Amino acid sequence: MIYQGKQKIWSDYQKEIPDNHWFYVRSCIRQSFFPASEYYFLKICRDMLGRDIFESKHHTTCGGIAYHADTIPQETAMTIVARQFALMTEAGYKNLVTSCITSFGNYTEILETWREFPELEARIREKLWKACRREFEKPEYVAHASDLVYKLREEIAANARFKLVDKATGEPLRIVEHIGCHYSKMFPHKGVGGAEYPCVLSGMAEAWGGKVIDYPERRH
Amino acid sequence: MGKLYDELTKDYRFKEGLKTCINCGTCTAICPAAEFYKYDPRKIVDTVQRKDEEGILELLKSETIWYCGECMSCVTRCPRKNGAGLVVMALRNLSTKLGYFTESEKGRQLYPLTKVLTTNVLKLGYCVHPSTYKYEDHPESGPVFEWVLNNKEDVYARLGANYGRQGEGALRAIPQEDLDELQAIFDETGATERINLVEECSRKKAAEMGMTMEEYTKYTFEHCSRGHFNNEEGAI
Protein backbone atom coordinates (compact mmCIF):
# COMPACT_ATOMS: atom_id res chain seq x y z
CA MET A 1 0.00 0.00 0.00
CA ILE A 2 1.32 3.45 -0.84
CA TYR A 3 1.28 5.45 2.35
CA GLN A 4 0.52 8.96 1.22
CA GLY A 5 -1.74 12.01 1.33
CA LYS A 6 -3.98 12.40 4.34
CA GLN A 7 -2.95 9.02 5.75
CA LYS A 8 0.70 10.02 5.73
CA ILE A 9 0.08 13.43 7.30
CA TRP A 10 -2.29 11.93 9.86
CA SER A 11 0.37 9.39 10.87
CA ASP A 12 2.78 12.25 11.59
CA TYR A 13 0.42 13.53 14.27
CA GLN A 14 -0.27 10.51 16.44
CA LYS A 15 -0.34 11.05 20.20
CA GLU A 16 0.86 8.57 22.77
CA ILE A 17 -1.92 9.21 25.25
CA PRO A 18 -1.28 7.78 28.74
CA ASP A 19 -3.72 5.05 29.71
CA ASN A 20 -4.41 5.95 33.33
CA HIS A 21 -4.03 8.30 36.33
CA TRP A 22 -5.31 11.73 35.43
CA PHE A 23 -5.90 15.00 37.24
CA TYR A 24 -9.18 16.40 35.91
CA VAL A 25 -10.05 20.06 35.42
CA ARG A 26 -13.59 21.07 34.50
CA SER A 27 -14.95 23.43 31.85
CA CYS A 28 -16.98 26.59 32.59
CA ILE A 29 -18.95 26.14 29.37
CA ARG A 30 -19.54 22.38 29.60
CA GLN A 31 -20.58 22.61 33.24
CA SER A 32 -23.05 25.39 32.46
CA PHE A 33 -24.45 24.15 29.17
CA PHE A 34 -23.76 20.40 29.03
CA PRO A 35 -23.19 19.19 32.62
CA ALA A 36 -24.23 15.63 31.76
CA SER A 37 -21.36 15.39 29.27
CA GLU A 38 -18.93 15.89 32.17
CA TYR A 39 -20.91 13.48 34.37
CA TYR A 40 -20.81 10.73 31.74
CA PHE A 41 -17.16 11.31 30.87
CA LEU A 42 -16.29 10.49 34.48
CA LYS A 43 -18.86 7.70 34.75
CA ILE A 44 -17.52 5.96 31.64
CA CYS A 45 -13.83 6.41 32.45
CA ARG A 46 -14.06 5.72 36.18
CA ASP A 47 -16.99 3.37 36.73
CA MET A 48 -17.16 1.46 33.46
CA LEU A 49 -13.50 1.32 32.48
CA GLY A 50 -11.87 1.55 35.92
CA ARG A 51 -9.58 4.49 35.24
CA ASP A 52 -8.24 6.72 38.01
CA ILE A 53 -9.38 10.29 37.39
CA PHE A 54 -8.94 12.67 40.30
CA GLU A 55 -10.82 15.92 40.83
CA SER A 56 -9.89 18.51 43.45
CA LYS A 57 -12.74 20.61 44.80
CA HIS A 58 -10.23 23.47 44.99
CA HIS A 59 -9.66 23.85 41.26
CA THR A 60 -11.26 26.81 39.50
CA THR A 61 -11.76 28.21 36.04
CA CYS A 62 -8.54 28.41 34.03
CA GLY A 63 -9.56 31.95 33.08
CA GLY A 64 -9.42 31.06 29.38
CA ILE A 65 -12.60 32.88 28.37
CA ALA A 66 -11.60 36.01 30.31
CA TYR A 67 -8.17 35.77 28.66
CA HIS A 68 -9.50 35.37 25.13
CA ALA A 69 -11.94 38.24 25.75
CA ASP A 70 -8.81 40.31 26.56
CA THR A 71 -10.11 41.16 30.02
CA ILE A 72 -7.15 39.79 32.00
CA PRO A 73 -3.40 40.06 31.32
CA GLN A 74 -1.46 37.07 30.03
CA GLU A 75 0.43 36.71 33.32
CA THR A 76 -2.86 36.44 35.22
CA ALA A 77 -4.03 33.59 32.98
CA MET A 78 -0.66 31.90 33.39
CA THR A 79 -0.69 32.18 37.19
CA ILE A 80 -4.22 30.76 37.44
CA VAL A 81 -3.05 27.81 35.35
CA ALA A 82 0.11 27.50 37.48
CA ARG A 83 -2.20 27.19 40.51
CA GLN A 84 -4.05 24.31 38.85
CA PHE A 85 -0.66 22.65 38.22
CA ALA A 86 0.15 23.13 41.92
CA LEU A 87 -3.08 21.35 42.90
CA MET A 88 -2.17 18.52 40.51
CA THR A 89 1.33 18.29 42.00
CA GLU A 90 -0.03 18.30 45.57
CA ALA A 91 -2.42 15.46 44.65
CA GLY A 92 0.47 13.42 43.20
CA TYR A 93 -0.56 13.37 39.54
CA LYS A 94 1.48 14.00 36.38
CA ASN A 95 -1.14 13.75 33.64
CA LEU A 96 -3.67 16.54 33.25
CA VAL A 97 -6.97 16.09 31.39
CA THR A 98 -9.07 19.14 30.59
CA SER A 99 -12.79 19.10 29.97
CA CYS A 100 -12.68 22.35 28.00
CA ILE A 101 -11.15 22.78 24.56
CA THR A 102 -10.15 26.39 25.21
CA SER A 103 -8.52 25.28 28.46
CA PHE A 104 -6.64 22.63 26.49
CA GLY A 105 -5.41 25.33 24.10
CA ASN A 106 -4.62 27.61 27.03
CA TYR A 107 -2.60 25.01 28.98
CA THR A 108 -0.76 23.95 25.84
CA GLU A 109 0.04 27.52 24.81
CA ILE A 110 1.30 28.38 28.29
CA LEU A 111 3.58 25.34 28.50
CA GLU A 112 4.97 26.01 25.02
CA THR A 113 5.54 29.71 25.83
CA TRP A 114 7.39 28.74 29.01
CA ARG A 115 9.49 26.25 27.03
CA GLU A 116 10.48 29.04 24.67
CA PHE A 117 10.88 31.71 27.36
CA PRO A 118 12.02 30.05 30.62
CA GLU A 119 12.42 33.44 32.31
CA LEU A 120 8.66 33.91 32.04
CA GLU A 121 8.02 30.55 33.73
CA ALA A 122 10.37 31.63 36.53
CA ARG A 123 8.44 34.89 36.95
CA ILE A 124 5.10 33.08 37.10
CA ARG A 125 6.48 30.68 39.73
CA GLU A 126 7.45 33.71 41.78
CA LYS A 127 4.04 35.33 41.35
CA LEU A 128 2.21 32.13 42.31
CA TRP A 129 4.34 31.83 45.42
CA LYS A 130 3.68 35.44 46.42
CA ALA A 131 -0.06 35.16 45.78
CA CYS A 132 -0.82 31.63 46.99
CA ARG A 133 2.31 30.18 48.64
CA ARG A 134 2.15 27.28 46.20
CA GLU A 135 4.73 25.51 44.03
CA PHE A 136 4.23 23.18 41.10
CA GLU A 137 5.66 20.61 38.71
CA LYS A 138 4.62 20.95 35.09
CA PRO A 139 2.41 18.11 33.83
CA GLU A 140 4.13 15.39 31.84
CA TYR A 141 1.10 15.13 29.60
CA VAL A 142 -1.88 17.38 28.83
CA ALA A 143 -4.90 15.89 27.07
CA HIS A 144 -8.36 17.05 26.22
CA ALA A 145 -11.18 14.79 27.42
CA SER A 146 -11.81 13.82 23.79
CA ASP A 147 -8.22 12.54 23.52
CA LEU A 148 -8.83 10.20 26.42
CA VAL A 149 -12.16 8.98 25.05
CA TYR A 150 -10.43 8.47 21.68
CA LYS A 151 -7.73 6.45 23.42
CA LEU A 152 -10.42 4.31 25.07
CA ARG A 153 -12.72 4.11 22.03
CA GLU A 154 -12.26 0.39 21.37
CA GLU A 155 -12.89 -0.47 25.03
CA ILE A 156 -15.99 1.71 24.94
CA ALA A 157 -17.12 -0.03 21.72
CA ALA A 158 -16.64 -3.43 23.36
CA ASN A 159 -18.84 -2.37 26.29
CA ALA A 160 -21.44 -0.44 24.30
CA ARG A 161 -25.02 -1.67 24.37
CA PHE A 162 -25.80 0.07 21.09
CA LYS A 163 -23.83 0.93 17.98
CA LEU A 164 -24.21 4.11 15.95
CA VAL A 165 -26.36 2.25 13.46
CA ASP A 166 -29.87 2.97 12.20
CA LYS A 167 -32.00 0.25 13.75
CA ALA A 168 -34.49 0.26 10.89
CA THR A 169 -32.07 0.05 7.98
CA GLY A 170 -28.87 -1.35 9.49
CA GLU A 171 -27.00 1.56 7.90
CA PRO A 172 -24.39 3.57 9.89
CA LEU A 173 -25.77 6.75 11.45
CA ARG A 174 -24.40 9.82 9.72
CA ILE A 175 -22.27 11.91 12.06
CA VAL A 176 -21.32 15.57 11.62
CA GLU A 177 -18.29 16.49 13.74
CA HIS A 178 -16.78 19.84 14.63
CA ILE A 179 -13.41 20.19 16.28
CA GLY A 180 -13.13 23.17 18.63
CA CYS A 181 -10.85 25.96 17.40
CA HIS A 182 -8.37 25.70 20.23
CA TYR A 183 -7.69 22.02 19.58
CA SER A 184 -4.25 21.86 17.92
CA LYS A 185 -4.50 24.89 15.62
CA MET A 186 -1.50 26.53 17.25
CA PHE A 187 0.39 23.35 18.07
CA PRO A 188 -0.56 20.64 15.56
CA HIS A 189 1.60 17.96 17.19
CA LYS A 190 -0.51 18.26 20.35
CA GLY A 191 -3.66 16.97 18.63
CA VAL A 192 -4.61 13.56 17.26
CA GLY A 193 -4.24 14.04 13.51
CA GLY A 194 -2.72 17.52 13.79
CA ALA A 195 -4.43 20.78 12.91
CA GLU A 196 -5.43 19.91 9.38
CA TYR A 197 -6.59 16.30 9.76
CA PRO A 198 -7.88 15.95 13.33
CA CYS A 199 -9.20 12.45 13.80
CA VAL A 200 -10.16 12.58 17.44
CA LEU A 201 -13.93 12.79 16.91
CA SER A 202 -14.20 11.00 13.57
CA GLY A 203 -12.13 8.17 15.06
CA MET A 204 -14.69 7.74 17.84
CA ALA A 205 -17.66 7.92 15.49
CA GLU A 206 -16.19 5.27 13.20
CA ALA A 207 -15.14 3.00 16.07
CA TRP A 208 -18.73 2.98 17.28
CA GLY A 209 -20.25 2.19 13.89
CA GLY A 210 -21.11 5.66 12.56
CA LYS A 211 -20.22 7.31 9.28
CA VAL A 212 -18.65 10.79 9.28
CA ILE A 213 -20.22 13.27 6.87
CA ASP A 214 -18.00 15.78 5.14
CA TYR A 215 -18.79 19.49 4.76
CA PRO A 216 -16.85 22.40 3.24
CA GLU A 217 -15.67 24.08 6.45
CA ARG A 218 -14.66 20.84 8.14
CA ARG A 219 -11.02 20.50 9.19
CA HIS A 220 -9.73 17.41 7.36
CA MET B 1 6.80 55.40 27.22
CA GLY B 2 8.97 54.34 24.30
CA LYS B 3 7.80 53.92 20.77
CA LEU B 4 4.61 51.93 20.30
CA TYR B 5 6.47 49.23 18.37
CA ASP B 6 8.95 48.85 21.22
CA GLU B 7 6.08 48.51 23.67
CA LEU B 8 4.59 45.73 21.52
CA THR B 9 7.87 43.80 21.50
CA LYS B 10 7.64 43.44 25.30
CA ASP B 11 4.54 41.25 24.90
CA TYR B 12 5.37 37.52 24.71
CA ARG B 13 2.51 36.97 22.28
CA PHE B 14 4.15 39.46 19.96
CA LYS B 15 7.51 37.71 20.30
CA GLU B 16 5.82 34.43 19.38
CA GLY B 17 3.49 35.83 16.75
CA LEU B 18 5.72 37.96 14.53
CA LYS B 19 8.85 36.53 13.00
CA THR B 20 9.18 37.27 9.30
CA CYS B 21 5.90 38.00 7.58
CA ILE B 22 6.16 37.68 3.79
CA ASN B 23 2.78 39.35 3.24
CA CYS B 24 1.37 36.35 1.37
CA GLY B 25 -2.13 36.92 2.77
CA THR B 26 -2.73 33.28 3.73
CA CYS B 27 -3.89 34.46 7.18
CA THR B 28 -6.57 36.66 5.62
CA ALA B 29 -7.65 33.88 3.25
CA ILE B 30 -8.17 31.38 6.09
CA CYS B 31 -9.54 33.87 8.66
CA PRO B 32 -13.20 33.19 9.64
CA ALA B 33 -13.55 36.76 10.96
CA ALA B 34 -12.41 38.21 7.60
CA GLU B 35 -15.25 36.35 5.93
CA PHE B 36 -17.73 38.54 7.82
CA TYR B 37 -15.93 41.65 9.07
CA LYS B 38 -14.00 44.30 7.17
CA TYR B 39 -10.89 42.70 8.56
CA ASP B 40 -7.53 41.95 7.00
CA PRO B 41 -4.92 40.44 9.34
CA ARG B 42 -2.28 40.65 6.60
CA LYS B 43 -2.55 44.45 6.58
CA ILE B 44 -2.37 44.63 10.39
CA VAL B 45 0.79 42.51 10.51
CA ASP B 46 2.30 44.51 7.63
CA THR B 47 1.67 47.83 9.43
CA VAL B 48 3.28 46.52 12.60
CA GLN B 49 6.20 44.84 10.83
CA ARG B 50 7.03 48.10 9.02
CA LYS B 51 7.25 49.78 12.45
CA ASP B 52 4.87 52.40 11.12
CA GLU B 53 4.27 54.31 14.36
CA GLU B 54 1.41 56.35 12.94
CA GLY B 55 -0.17 53.24 11.52
CA ILE B 56 0.20 51.39 14.85
CA LEU B 57 -1.42 54.30 16.71
CA GLU B 58 -4.30 54.17 14.24
CA LEU B 59 -4.64 50.43 14.85
CA LEU B 60 -4.73 50.90 18.63
CA LYS B 61 -7.70 53.25 18.23
CA SER B 62 -9.36 51.22 15.48
CA GLU B 63 -12.30 48.85 15.21
CA THR B 64 -10.26 46.37 13.20
CA ILE B 65 -8.10 44.92 16.01
CA TRP B 66 -11.30 43.93 17.85
CA TYR B 67 -12.72 41.83 15.00
CA CYS B 68 -10.40 38.83 15.56
CA GLY B 69 -12.03 35.85 17.29
CA GLU B 70 -8.66 34.47 18.50
CA CYS B 71 -9.37 31.08 16.91
CA MET B 72 -5.73 30.99 15.71
CA SER B 73 -6.50 29.48 12.31
CA CYS B 74 -3.90 31.94 10.99
CA VAL B 75 -1.17 30.19 12.99
CA THR B 76 -2.00 26.84 11.42
CA ARG B 77 -1.64 28.02 7.85
CA CYS B 78 1.10 30.67 8.01
CA PRO B 79 4.07 29.42 5.95
CA ARG B 80 6.43 31.37 8.22
CA LYS B 81 4.89 30.28 11.53
CA ASN B 82 3.66 33.75 12.43
CA GLY B 83 0.44 34.30 14.31
CA ALA B 84 -1.56 37.31 13.22
CA GLY B 85 -3.99 36.50 16.05
CA LEU B 86 -1.16 36.73 18.58
CA VAL B 87 -0.08 40.10 17.15
CA VAL B 88 -3.69 41.27 17.50
CA MET B 89 -3.74 40.13 21.15
CA ALA B 90 -0.63 42.22 21.81
CA LEU B 91 -2.21 45.21 20.04
CA ARG B 92 -5.40 44.86 22.12
CA ASN B 93 -3.32 44.62 25.28
CA LEU B 94 -1.48 47.83 24.43
CA SER B 95 -4.70 49.56 23.34
CA THR B 96 -6.17 48.73 26.75
CA LYS B 97 -3.08 49.81 28.70
CA LEU B 98 -3.03 53.17 26.91
CA GLY B 99 -6.78 53.70 27.17
CA TYR B 100 -7.25 53.82 23.38
CA PHE B 101 -9.83 51.02 23.44
CA THR B 102 -12.60 53.54 24.17
CA GLU B 103 -11.97 55.18 20.79
CA SER B 104 -13.73 52.34 18.93
CA GLU B 105 -17.20 50.83 19.25
CA LYS B 106 -15.86 47.27 19.38
CA GLY B 107 -13.11 48.31 21.80
CA ARG B 108 -15.67 49.85 24.15
CA GLN B 109 -17.23 46.39 24.53
CA LEU B 110 -14.25 45.60 26.75
CA TYR B 111 -16.11 47.32 29.58
CA PRO B 112 -19.19 45.04 29.82
CA LEU B 113 -17.01 42.00 29.08
CA THR B 114 -14.54 42.87 31.84
CA LYS B 115 -17.33 43.53 34.27
CA VAL B 116 -19.16 40.26 33.68
CA LEU B 117 -16.21 37.90 33.24
CA THR B 118 -13.90 39.12 35.97
CA THR B 119 -16.78 39.36 38.45
CA ASN B 120 -17.69 35.74 37.65
CA VAL B 121 -14.08 34.64 38.11
CA LEU B 122 -13.58 36.46 41.41
CA LYS B 123 -16.99 35.89 43.00
CA LEU B 124 -17.75 32.39 41.74
CA GLY B 125 -14.52 30.88 40.39
CA TYR B 126 -16.04 30.38 36.92
CA CYS B 127 -15.80 32.49 33.75
CA VAL B 128 -19.40 31.62 32.91
CA HIS B 129 -22.03 30.49 35.41
CA PRO B 130 -25.80 29.95 35.14
CA SER B 131 -26.48 32.17 38.17
CA THR B 132 -25.21 35.25 36.31
CA TYR B 133 -26.14 34.21 32.77
CA LYS B 134 -29.15 36.27 31.79
CA TYR B 135 -31.30 34.89 29.00
CA GLU B 136 -32.36 38.39 27.92
CA ASP B 137 -28.69 39.20 27.24
CA HIS B 138 -28.26 36.01 25.20
CA PRO B 139 -31.51 35.27 23.33
CA GLU B 140 -29.42 33.26 20.86
CA SER B 141 -29.22 30.51 23.48
CA GLY B 142 -32.85 29.71 22.63
CA PRO B 143 -36.07 28.92 24.51
CA VAL B 144 -34.92 25.52 25.77
CA PHE B 145 -32.01 27.12 27.58
CA GLU B 146 -34.32 29.82 28.91
CA TRP B 147 -36.37 26.99 30.43
CA VAL B 148 -33.19 25.41 31.85
CA LEU B 149 -32.26 28.72 33.51
CA ASN B 150 -35.75 29.07 34.96
CA ASN B 151 -35.52 25.58 36.47
CA LYS B 152 -31.79 25.37 37.04
CA GLU B 153 -31.65 23.65 40.44
CA ASP B 154 -33.88 20.77 39.26
CA VAL B 155 -32.40 20.47 35.79
CA TYR B 156 -28.76 20.55 36.85
CA ALA B 157 -29.40 18.02 39.62
CA ARG B 158 -31.02 15.70 37.09
CA LEU B 159 -28.03 16.07 34.77
CA GLY B 160 -25.56 14.96 37.44
CA ALA B 161 -24.26 18.38 38.51
CA ASN B 162 -23.58 19.45 42.08
CA TYR B 163 -25.06 22.90 41.58
CA GLY B 164 -24.11 25.39 44.29
CA ARG B 165 -23.15 22.71 46.83
CA GLN B 166 -19.91 21.91 48.62
CA GLY B 167 -17.52 19.22 47.38
CA GLU B 168 -16.63 18.08 43.89
CA GLY B 169 -18.69 17.99 40.73
CA ALA B 170 -20.02 20.26 38.02
CA LEU B 171 -21.12 23.75 39.09
CA ARG B 172 -20.15 23.13 42.71
CA ALA B 173 -19.62 26.14 44.98
CA ILE B 174 -15.91 26.99 44.87
CA PRO B 175 -14.65 27.39 48.47
CA GLN B 176 -14.02 30.97 49.63
CA GLU B 177 -10.36 30.18 50.37
CA ASP B 178 -9.87 29.38 46.66
CA LEU B 179 -11.66 32.56 45.57
CA ASP B 180 -9.33 34.45 47.91
CA GLU B 181 -6.37 32.91 46.07
CA LEU B 182 -7.81 34.04 42.73
CA GLN B 183 -8.13 37.57 44.12
CA ALA B 184 -4.51 37.42 45.30
CA ILE B 185 -3.45 36.28 41.80
CA PHE B 186 -5.41 39.17 40.26
CA ASP B 187 -3.71 41.62 42.62
CA GLU B 188 -0.23 40.19 42.04
CA THR B 189 -0.37 39.89 38.23
CA GLY B 190 -1.94 43.19 37.24
CA ALA B 191 -5.52 42.07 36.61
CA THR B 192 -6.96 44.19 39.42
CA GLU B 193 -5.11 47.21 38.07
CA ARG B 194 -6.42 46.37 34.57
CA ILE B 195 -10.02 46.15 35.79
CA ASN B 196 -9.70 49.56 37.48
CA LEU B 197 -8.13 51.09 34.38
CA VAL B 198 -10.92 49.78 32.09
CA GLU B 199 -13.48 51.15 34.56
CA GLU B 200 -11.79 54.56 34.76
CA CYS B 201 -11.39 54.97 30.98
CA SER B 202 -14.96 53.80 30.39
CA ARG B 203 -16.34 56.27 32.94
CA LYS B 204 -14.51 59.06 31.16
CA LYS B 205 -15.89 57.94 27.80
CA ALA B 206 -19.43 57.57 29.17
CA ALA B 207 -19.27 61.16 30.46
CA GLU B 208 -18.00 62.29 27.06
CA MET B 209 -20.92 60.51 25.38
CA GLY B 210 -23.36 62.02 27.89
CA MET B 211 -24.40 58.66 29.36
CA THR B 212 -24.77 57.24 32.85
CA MET B 213 -22.71 54.10 33.47
CA GLU B 214 -25.88 52.02 33.30
CA GLU B 215 -26.73 53.49 29.89
CA TYR B 216 -23.12 53.10 28.72
CA THR B 217 -23.01 49.43 29.77
CA LYS B 218 -26.25 48.65 27.95
CA TYR B 219 -25.24 50.65 24.88
CA THR B 220 -21.78 49.14 24.53
CA PHE B 221 -23.17 45.64 25.04
CA GLU B 222 -26.09 45.94 22.64
CA HIS B 223 -25.42 48.57 20.02
CA CYS B 224 -23.80 47.64 16.71
CA SER B 225 -23.49 50.40 14.11
CA ARG B 226 -23.71 49.70 10.40
CA GLY B 227 -20.40 49.38 8.58
CA HIS B 228 -18.55 46.62 10.48
CA PHE B 229 -19.51 43.85 8.07
CA ASN B 230 -18.34 43.17 4.52
CA ASN B 231 -21.85 43.39 3.12
CA GLU B 232 -22.57 46.76 4.75
CA GLU B 233 -21.85 50.10 3.17
CA GLY B 234 -20.02 52.83 5.03
CA ALA B 235 -17.22 52.92 7.54
CA ILE B 236 -17.41 53.24 11.32
Defining traits:
heterodimer; A: 220 residues; alpha/beta; Glutathione S-transferase Yfyf (Class Pi), Chain A, domain 2; two-stranded parallel ribbon; 10 helices; 47% helix; globular; B: 236 residues; mainly alpha; Fumarate Reductase Iron-sulfur Protein, Chain B, domain 2; 15 helices
Structure summary:
The complex is a heterodimer of chains A (220) and B (236). Chain A has 220 residues and is an alpha/beta fold. Chain A has helices at 5-12, 28-33, 35-48, 64-68, 74-91, 101-116, 118-132, 145-151, 153-159, 200-207, and strands spanning 22-25, 53-54, 95-98, 141-144, 174-175, 211-212.
Strand content of chain A: 5-15%
Residue windows where pLDDT falls under 50 for at least 5 positions of chain B: none
**What's the Cα radius of gyration of chain B?**
20 Å
How large is the radius of gyration of chain A? 19 Å
- The helicity of chain B comes to 55-70%
In terms of quaternary structure, the protein is heterodimer
Total domains of chain A, how many?
A: 1
What fraction strand of chain B? Answer: under 5%
Largest sheet of chain B: none
Number of continuous helical runs of chain B: 15
Largest interface: A-B, 54 and 61 residues
How would you describe the shape of chain A? globular
Give the N-terminus to C-terminus distance of chain A in angstroms. 21 Å
Q: Helix and strand succession of chain A?
A: HEHHEHHEHHEHHEHE
Number of helices of chain A: 10
Q: Give the % helix of chain A.
A: 40-55%
